[in-house]
Design a protein that fits this description.
Elements: H1 8-13, H2 34-38, E1 54-56, E2 65-76, E3 79-88, E4 94-95, E5 99-100, E6 105-107, E7 113-114, E8 119-121, H3 125-130, E9 135-137, E10 146-151, E11 158-166, E12 170-172, H4 193-197, E13 204-206
Parallel strand pairs: 2-11
Antiparallel strand pairs: 1-2, 2-3, 3-8, 3-9, 4-7, 5-10, 6-9, 10-11, 12-13
């Protein structure tokens, strides 16, 4: 992380959400039981992140800072902003881990010292005012993709697959023939008759936890204040 040279007052003037992205589940190692279920001698070899964001937690004195909820917020293909929460797990000052990747270009990050027990959430107003954005660019940056990064060095190095998430709410349209209670034509009737009488219904807008956080795009849109729903948070997990 690099401290921002922009005016803190102007940054704080934007409406930004203090989203805590910590607590997402660690990337799960490759699954090995596929052949028992499918009958084929196949193993999956790509890590799976079952929750929002990747996590770097190493039980070692050489890795005193954990990094949780790592995502790349992207408003357009080809660029995005890395968002994460850095937590110093010790009572002494410690540096954040190195972050490297050969898959994309990473700018605006360098290890930064945190005070004992200090937490820096890059989605918060204070962090936006104090730190320059961490910009990711490259052909792999596209919503729904996952990009490999290496956090830490030596024995504490871990490869994480970081998901690319949308910078804005998404609109989901119901499938053809799908019915919802209250749609014109009712809930449909037996057979195909209901599919033709019920209509398609209205599109549903799914909010984004990271709305307006992609600082790789100018001008940056205003972002409304959001109160995270605790029920949407991922369960705590330890590295396995």
């Amino acid at each position: 992380m690099q401290r921002s040279t922009s005016s803190p007052a102007s940054a704080r003037g934007r409406r930004r959400a203090g989203l805590l992205l910590a607590g997402a589940v660690l990337a799960v190692p490759a699954l090995t039981g596929c052949s028992k279920l499918t009958g084929f001698d196949v193993e999956t070899d790509r890590p799976y992140v079952p929750a929002h964001g990747a996590n770097y937690r190493v039980a070692s004195l050489d890795a005193p800072v954990a990094v949780t909820g790592v995502v790349i917020v992207s408003g357009q293909d080809g660029s995005g902003t890395l968002i994460a929460t850095f937590v110093n797990k010790t009572t002494e000052p410690a540096e954040t881990p190195t972050i490297s990747t050969e898959a994309v270009s990473l700018e605006g990050y360098e290890p930064t010292e945190l005070r004992g027990n200090e937490m820096v959430n890059l989605a918060s107003d204070d962090a936006v005012a104090e730190y320059a954005p961490i910009i990711v660019t490259g052909d792999m940056v596209a919503q729904g993709a996952s990009i490999p990064f290496t956090f830490g060095e030596g024995e504490t190095a871990r490869e994480l697959w970081v998901p690319v998430v949308p910078n804005e709410p998404r609109e989901i349209k119901p499938a053809v023939g799908e019915h919802h209670e209250g749609d014109e034509g009712g809930e449909g009737t037996e057979g195909d008759e209901g599919d033709h009488e019920g209509g398609l219904g209205e599109a549903e807008t799914i909010p984004s936890w990271w709305e307006g956080l992609d600082r790789s795009v100018e001008p940056q849109p205003a972002r409304p204040t959001v109160t995270p729903d605790a029920s949407n948070g991922a369960d705590e997990s330890t590295e396995g």
